[in-house]
Amino acid sequence: MVAPDLLAEGFEKNRPRLRAVAYRMLGSLAEADDAVQEAWLRLSRADASEVDNLAGWLTTIVARVCLNMLRSRKARREDPMGAHVPDPILSPSDGTTPEDEVLLADSVGLALQVVLDTLAPAERLAFVLHDMFDLPFDEIGRIVGRSPATARQLASRARRRVRGVDVRTPDPDLGRRREVVDAFFAAARNGDLEALVAVLDPDVVLRADGGTAYPHATALVHGAREIAGRAMAFDQPSPALRPALVNGLTGVLVTVEEQPFAIMAFNVSGGKIVEVYVLADPDRLPQLNLAAVGQS
What we know:
The chain is of the alpha+beta class. The chain is 49% helix and 17% strand. It has helices at 4-26, 29-45, 54-75, 98-104, 110-116, 121-132, 137-144, 148-163, 174-190, 193-199, 224-233, and strands at 90-91, 200-209, 219-222, 240-246, 249-256, 259-269, 272-279. The protein has a seven-stranded mixed sheet. A hairpin with a 2-residue loop joins strand 4 (240-246) and strand 5 (249-256). The protein is elongated and about 65 Å long.
């Protein structure tokens, strides 16, 4: 049993892990914070005598809240479609903070978050809780209202989807990765199409998300020349680039007239850019930790 006066302290100790669970479940930092806050509200109303394992109790509550959010998202037909880019984790360009490390443990890159967004709610929950947080299937089964055997099958189906995606490992040298990204922007500024193509892998993929405000900016584009052509056509006046890490990838915060315009992340593997992610949704950008790269 946890004494009532220790519940708040215990909750704060568990908050980083709960936020990590919710982020991987939802792919949205704002919704993850809502789920964690809901867990606190339920804890504050709970009978302390009913809470024997505070960490497990809170994880179960957050998981159930997230499952309801995912199911509601599906029911409203608001499941991510097309070129949706999940909320990115921004860190200083020279390395991630301890708080970010909790969110990004198990290599929760943008590519994995994109795949998780395609899973059914129960599959996503089973995979995240078992494969990322080591919860047993009997507990997962109780959360989703299924048997442990069915929970195991849900996680297995999700695992096959995740493993079926070709994820290129970023090069380990941060300095070299930054040089490649800087070369990309220099070529774009100079209007040098061939220099752009030279830093892009032939099979590079661009995923851009402009949200409901800029649906014309939302696109899924394949191929070096197609993406180079789009980079050449970027016509915002005097964009400024603030270096950052974006879910561990080399990236930038793009500002125009000192206002946040987009977050870009580049997966540099084998010395070439193999993936590009662009989040240019003005409704979501203010909800992110832009202060991590010197933008409040």
